[in-house]
Amino acid sequence: MSPKRPRRRSFEIASEKGIEFLIRLCGISAIVFVFAIFFFVFREGAPVLAKLNWQEFLFTPYWYPTSLGNPRYGVGALIIGTFSVTVLAMVIAVPFGLGAAIFVSEFCGQKTKEALKITIELLAAIPSVVWGFIGLTVMNVVIQKVFNVQIGLNVLNAAILLALMSVPIMVSIGEDALKAVPDSYREAALALGATRWQLVRRVLLPAAKNGLLAAVLLGVGRAVGETMAVLMATGHSVNNPFFKADGAFNLGWMFESCRTLTATIAAELGETAHGSDHYRVLFLIGILLFTITFVVNLTADLIVKGIRKQ
Amino acid sequence: MFTETPFIRKKRRHELLAKCIFGSMALAMVIPLVLIVGYLFFKAWPLLSWEFLSTNPASGMRKGGIWSALLGTIYLVTFSLLIAAPIGVLAAVYLNEYSRENWFTRIINLAVVNLAGVPSIVHALFGLGAFVLFAGMGRSIIAASLTLAIMTLPVIIASTKEALASVPLSFREACWNVGATRWQTIRRIVLPNSISGILTGVILQVSRTAGETAPIMFTGAVFYRKIAEGDLFAYSLKDQCMALSMHLYTVTTQVTNAPEALPYAIAVVLLGAVLLVNATAIVFRLILRSRKKW
User: Fold this and answer.
1) CB proximity list for A245: less than 8 A, separation 6 or greater
2) What is the pLDDT of residue A187?
3) Buried (b) or exposed (e) across A115-131, using 16+ Cβ within 10 A?
4) What's the rounded Cα separation, in Å, for the pair B247 and B70?
5) Residue A197 and residue B214: Cβ atoms within 8 Å?
């Protein structure tokens, strides 16, 4: 005698099938959108590719898109601008971000930890346009006064803002990386009489090296892609901050204004005619940015996945 | 009796020093937040009033309030989340409940990570190319909302996945054993048990979406627009709108002779809304954690 089984009605089976199809469809949406972003940005930018000399585009610093007789599209100076701001931001953010991650994970009690994590989360929530506004109004004046320079809207200003913006992600990923180090490592070191400083330097940092690197890379990705804050805080002049007009290295490069790839798109796209070369070149810059952040994020992700496998 | 040797004293000194250094680094994160919020609020104080929130900007932004920008931001946030939340939650359901450990899942996860890393200005270019031009929506609230939705999607997927993963497998097994199908299990067991975690993730996205400027600059936000005051339905989906974030940008960089407190007041309203929403989500999460049954 077999137990009576309720028969599923065909309607139920159909709706189950339908919902499963929908879920699978949403499941692949992320892939679809990544490709769509590349496709549609490339589609707008592609027609100008034939006219453009790649080497001139990437390596010359002559950005004169609105010149009537001879418009030139060299993003060299913009790449250097992005590079200088990002590097300086990381020089500021990495010690603070990783230091804070170490403090949160190793040195403080449960209550302090909760409070700090919440604060850092709120720090991450401040919109980039508000950071830009702070750069324009507060930091501008502070930098002028503290360093006694003429222009407060410069590489340093944007770098400090970017550092504050990318620190939260570094802290949270860095803390995860430290948490992933087995407690037995800590116990072994402490049993040998190591201080916690020795523990951090000799055991945790080497063991969590890759995770911390991934944290830094994610910070870099964020800094490269940031738009509004750098648009408002860098001074936005096409300029190679590292060299003076006569070709000598500029020691005060961090007090020079510069312009980044992201800010250029944000500032100029609204004023270009649809379909013009200038308009299409801005989309090409978008592809360039997409590629840079794609590579950076992919590397960070591979590193993190590598750790999880161990 | 135990007496301290110089060596041990030195070790203790190092220990304290290390704690102080790392502590001050952590503190360096907290101080800016407090200082910035305090300073902005102090500067904005003279302008803040109910009237500031509920009247349109007037005389080239120099007078009046921020009503049309505030309502525009509310529209953008609402519609982008209405689009992103269902897709994101279902995508996370797929990743957590249906997918197997294989190369395809790996690629989806990679795509989610990379989508989260795409710069906001590239999202703006995409929105312009795909929604405004290709799909023919023109610059409108719907095009801007779609752009924002795609931007928030990966974060919603990640937070939802985490919430779903925290439901123990034994719950699902119990449900399967009484003969429920996969979807029935998800709907009756998995989703109800993780709904608060999912909601927290979505609420956190409200604040992020409200603050975004770059993606809406070319897809739907405009410099100035006057709408009926006090009417919550003053915009339609095809309209262009003002937005708080964009308004802050234009007032600080393009409007001359604006009252000094005006940009501060806009920043405070934006920041206040964002921090309030975030704080709500955090409190929500803390309550949730203390109530967790398993």
Assistant:
1) none
2) 92
3) ebbbbbbbbbbbbbbbb
4) 9
5) no
Nearest 5°: the CA angle B40, B208, B282 is 85
- Let me know if A249 is exposed, middle or buried by CB neighbors in 10 A (0-12, 13-18, 19+): exposed
Amino acid at A27: G
pLDDT digit string (tens) for B53-110? 888 888 777 778 889 999 999 999 999 999 999 999 999 999 999 988 888 998 999 9
Tell me if B165 sits within 8 A of B207, measured CB to CB: no
Q: How many other CB atoms are there within 10 angstroms of residue A7's CB atom?
A: 7
Optimal mutation site among A102, A131, A133, A142, interface B, most CBs of chain B within 10 A: A133
DSSP string, chain B: -----HHHHHHHHHHHHHHHHHHHHHHHHHHHHHHHHHHHHHHHGGG-SHHHHHS-EETTTTEE--HHHHHHHHHHHHHHHHHHHHHHHHHHHIIIII--SSHHHHHHHHHHHHHHHS-HHHHHHHHIIIIIIIS---SSHHHHHHHHHHHHHHHHHHHHHHHHHTS-HHHHHHHHHTT--HHHHIIIIIHHHHHHHHHHHHHHHHHHHHH--HHHHTTTB-S-----TT-TT---TTS-B--HHHHHHHHHHT-SS--THHHHHHHHHHHHHHHHHHHHHHHHHHHHHHH---
Residues of A in contact with B279 (CB under 8 A): 122
Residue pair A261/A80 in contact (Cβ under 8 Å)? The answer is no
Which of B118, B123, B240, B264 to mutate to test binding with chain A, by most A CBs within 10 Å of its CB?
B118
Report the 10 Å Cβ neighbour count for B229: 14
Tell me the whole-structure pTM to 2 decimals: 0.90
Percent of chain A residues past pLDDT 90, beyond the cut:
42
What domains, with CATH codes, occur in chain A?
A: 49-309 (1.10.3720.10)
pLDDT of residue A151: 85
B31 touches chain A (CB under 8 A): no
CATH topology of domain B66-291: MetI-like fold (1.10.3720)
Distances (CA, A) of A10 to A14, A15, A16, A236, B77: 6, 9, 10, 64, 40
Four-point Cα dihedral A296, A301, A303, A306, nearest 10: -160
From the candidates B126, B153, B244, which should be mutated to test the interface with A, based on the most A CB atoms within 10 A? B126
Given a cut of 70, the residues of chain B with pLDDT beneath it are: 1-2, 292-294
A292, B122 Cβ separation under 8 angstroms? no
Amino acid at residue number B30: V
Distance between CA A23 and CA A10 in Å, rounded? 20
Total residues found in chain A within this entry: 310
Bridge-based pairing of strands A72-73 and B57-58 is: unpaired
The radius of gyration computed from the CA coordinates of chain B, to the nearest angstrom, equals 24
Sign of CA pseudo-dihedral A172, A175, A176, A177: positive
Residue A58: is its pLDDT beyond 90?
Answer: no
- Which residue in B18, B28, B248 is closest to A96 by CB distance? B28
Determine whether the interchain pair A103/B150 forms a contact, defined as Cβ–Cβ distance below 8 Å: no
CB contact under 8 A, B117 and A136: no
